[in-house]
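Database export, one record per block. Field names are fixed; values are copied verbatim from the stored entry.
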Amino acid sequence: MIHVENLTKYYNDLCAVDQISFDISKGEIMGLLGPNGAGKTTTLQILTGFLRPTSGKIRVKDYSIDEDSLQIKKLLGYLPESAPLYHDMLVHDYLDYVANIRRLDSSKKIPRIRQLADLCGISEVMHKTINELSKGFKQRVGLAHAMMDDPEILVLDEPTSGLDPNQIIEIRDIIKQIGQEKTVILSTHILSEAEATCDRIVIINKGKIVANDSTQILKQSAGGNKLINLSLKNAEFESVKQHLASISKISDIIKVSDNNDMLNLKLTCKSSADIRGDIYKKVIQTDWILLEMHQETQTLENIFRELTREN
């Protein structure tokens, strides 16, 4: 649905976006992650037509951003990090105003406002001024604004920034519900939210894409070592080290604790190996009792830090 090819943006001599390319499928929720200044907001502003790229191609459906920017804007709903709301207006009056600007037919306007109020969970505050609302409810009103003319693509810049944990979960649930019917692009610095919400994640660092895949595949392909936690009964640390030494893919064994006849170990192995079967075969050759064995999964936070750390 969206094709981005070699997108580049310079501000004088500063390269904010450096030849990035990616595709977004219809009905996909894509997360755009990166440290501050990585180029996330610049990328979104180019996609939504607020900025012109220095070079590169963007196609949305059959439209080119160079030749059909107005048509592309009609397909998009955009919620910037600070939603541009009129704080002295009632929520209902504000959405009515937005509907008029978007030239919604009068017969469709009232049903659409009610539909969005229900979808975004703002029915109970429609009679309040926007200034009275919490930041979480203001974001919901901003979402309703962005969704007014039923865009096919929704672009969200830091939609959960500054919200408390309960508000974050509420906005996340709304985004996931919207994502069942629409293509969603969101930038965020909250990694757990990206993991819980997005089908795919693109990580940008210094204007370049350093990762582009689902969180599951990113974790599977992440560099570094895998860790296995092993709990044994009736076992001594030195004996275990010696017995498991023949498994060549184990690079280190660390004793975590040794309490009440239970030995807890952390094993480090090469990233491409799943050696739990080998460990099990070794353990059953002894009189040790295997209480627990599980492999730690890579976290998105660790992957993000590895890909965006300074050299």
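Remark 1: The longest strand covers residues 14-24.
Remark 2: The mean pLDDT is 90.
End of record.
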